[in-house]
Design a protein that fits this description.
Elements: E1 11-16, H1 44-52, H2 54-57, H3 78-94, E2 105-106, E3 115-119, E4 132-133, H4 140-148, E5 155-159, H5 176-180, H6 184-200, E6 204-208, H7 210-220, E7 227-233, E8 238-239, E9 242-243, E10 245-250, E11 256-263, H8 266-272, H9 277-293, H10 316-330, H11 336-350, H12 353-357, H13 365-389, H14 391-410, H15 412-430, H16 433-452, H17 454-481, H18 505-516, H19 522-530, E12 534-539, E13 542-547, H20 554-575
Parallel strand pairs: 2-4, 3-5, 3-6, 6-11
Antiparallel strand pairs: 1-7, 7-10, 8-9, 10-11, 12-13
Helix pairs in contact: 3-6, 4-8, 10-13, 17-18
């Protein structure tokens, strides 16, 4: 089986999964393909009739409901019918109840197909619950395959576990133990053996879903006479937390027997997430390539790319994180040329291209750029804090604001314009008799209603009292704010003399919030990163309340207490207390 020269560059070096068992002394004979008619020659005429009308009856690999009786499964291939009947007998012997047999989902397509699409398990989201089939157009997930592939005549579509279950998005997969009890292990082993034979009998396989990928990689390594090679694709994406890859199974003579590609489940595109543009393009690449190799016609080469219009492209940080995970898992680093090609736009923008090209081969480009991104963000934070706490910055901003204010007020053009506008509006209003009449009536009605309404008097009184209280509280807050330096610490101070004045917890919370709105020193910033709760420290009549104060060492606490005492003494001297 020759590989495509067009797609070869997207693969990395292969990784051999299992060493082959020693070949026999005699060269193995190629296994002759068994004729599907060899089991029953007497049905030759009937089988010929089935084959001749297969394309007409099943243009997309499934029958219309009106053509198939409700009490039996559809038939496409005589060999598949024999294989399916044998499986039903085996799974009943393993412990599956007779009442669940009609709910089994039969594989669609012929037994010996060039392409096998292996799905998880069927659900009740179907118009044919009993005697159904895997390739069910009434199911949203299976519609993904129905719409991607034009003709399923040479495609075997099968569920690993053909027992129909109720899908529960909150559970971690099917709860087979609750369904089958002690017979669960035998039933699942029967299903997995049947699915493995489907993969082995097909040249190409598209394995859908995470659980299927884990199962298939494990079971193929146990097959005698086969050894696996894994080819990783040169794509900055992960699938099921692994780098995108395919499996190649060879026999003793080195001949390729099976090629397995992995794909997300149909639910990934129709229900769960909004995939990135790269993921959609990747799936079109995989399905188009597999269908071309297996000579299966494709209905839409951009079927996955058309899923959803709101997709986003991977940024440099996404690519770096993906490759850092891969480097950690594999213990290798991304080749420098590949990394530079993927991040070239960002490196040119930041002026790092020459620096990255000068790295040693043992250094990771992804890790180096990631470190640069982190340090760049840290420098921006430090610069912002330094700017805000700089007294010259405040003075400069204050002068600019004052200059702008004075320029506006002292500008004769501005005064003249505002004055003309005010005069024009006033003259227009006074000269309008309708305005005077309307305003007079409204004022008279409001005055009469107001004076005669007792609720109005009570409401106005409450509003006035609330306004007085708010003014008092604001003045208290302004007084409190002078007890600490907002640019250096995030704390507020309380003295014993003022303790009784401000017992209200809400006022303290407001004061504390006012303090927390300012930027802190580097020590306080480091403390806030690790502690979210607020603690207090009291010494010599001074109490500091701030995030992470317990994380500070004794020297920092003493410095803060001393600073607070200086502020208090300065305030007392200023007020003459």
């Amino acid at each position: 089986m020759a590989s495509s020269p067009v797609l070869d560059p997207i693969f990395l070096t292969s990784t051999r999964r299992r060493a082959p068992t020693p070949p026999p002394s005699q060269p193995p004979q190629k296994r002759a393909r068994q004729s599907p008619l060899s089991d029953a020659e007497v049905y030759l005429d009937e089988v010929k009739e089935v084959f001749s009308s297969a394309a007409y009856r099943a243009p997309i690999g499934c029958h219309e409901e009106t053509e198939v009786p409700a009490d039996r499964w559809a038939s496409w291939d005589y060999a598949m019918d024999i294989e399916w009947n044998r499986f039903v007998t085996n799974i009943q012997a393993a412990g599956l109840g007779d009442d669940l047999v009609p709910e089994l989902s039969k594989p669609s397509g012929p037994r010996d197909a060039l392409l096998c699409c292996l799905w998880h398990y069927p659900t009740y989201r179907t118009t044919r619950r009993f005697y159904g089939q895997t390739l069910d157009p009434s199911n949203d997930c299976l519609r993904v395959q129905c719409d991607k592939i034009l003709d399923h005549t040479n495609v075997r579509t099968q569920d690993t576990y053909p027992m129909r279950i109720a899908y529960d998005p909150k559970s971690d997969g099917p709860q087979y133990q609750k369904m089958f009890g002690d017979t669960t292990e035998k039933i699942l082993e029967t299903c997995e053996a049947f699915a493995l034979e489907a993969v082995k009998s097909s040249a190409f396989t598209i394995c859908l879903g995470k659980q299927n990928s884990i199962l298939l990689m494990r079971e193929l390594q146990k097959v005698e006479g086969l050894y696996l090679e894994e080819y990783r694709m040169r794509i900055p994406l992960l699938m099921y937390r692994r780098q995108v890859s395919c499996l190649v199974a060879r026999d003793h003579g080195g001949t390729i027997r099976n090629v397995v590609f992995f794909s997300y489940h149909g639910m990934y595109f129709t229900h769960l997430v909004k995939a990135t543009k790269e993921v959609l393009l990747l799936h079109d690449l995989i399905w188009n390539g597999v269908c071309e190799w297996s000579r299966v016609p494709v209905a839409s080469h951009r079927h996955f790319s058309n899923f959803g219009k709101e997709v986003h492209r991977l940024g440099p940080l996404d690519i770096i994180i993906h490759h850092l995970v891969i480097e950690q898992q594999t213990g290798t680093i991304t080749p420098h040329e590949e990394a530079i090609a993927m991040l070239q736009t960002y490196l040119e923008k930041e002026g790092l291209l020459d620096t990255i090209r000068g790295l040693d081969e043992t250094q990771s480009v992804m890790k180096t750029v990631h470190t640069y991104m982190c340090s760049k963000g840290g420098k921006a934070v430090v610069k912002r804090l330094q700017t805000i706490s700089d007294p010259l910055y405040k003075e400069t901003k204050g002068k600019e604001a004052a200059a702008k204010r004075s320029q506006t007020v002292n500008d004769p053009g501005w005064k003249e314009t505002k004055g003309k506008e005010a005069v024009a509006k006033q003259s227009q209003t006074k000269s309008d008799p309708v305005y005077k009449e309307t305003k007079g009536k409204e004022a008279a009605a409001k005055r009469a209603q107001t004076k005669s309404d007792p609720l109005y008097k009570e409401t106005k009184g409450k509003e006035a009292a609330a306004k007085r209280a708010e003014t008092t509280k604001r003045s208290q807050l302004e007084s409190w704010s002078r007890f600490y330096n907002n640019a250096e610490v995030q704390a507020f101070l309380r003295t014993p003399a003022n303790e009784l004045k401000y017992q209200d917890r809400q006022k303290q919370a407001n004061i504390q919030q006012l303090g927390n709105s300012t930027d802190a020193t580097e020590a306080i910033v480091m403390a806030r990163r690790n502690v979210t709760k607020k603690y207090s420290v009291e010494e010599g009549g001074i109490r500091l309340v701030m995030p992470g104060v317990k994380n500070l060492n004794a020297a920092d606490k003493a410095a803060l207490i001393a600073k607070a005492k200086e502020q208090r003494e300065a305030q007392q001297q200023e007020s003459g207390e």
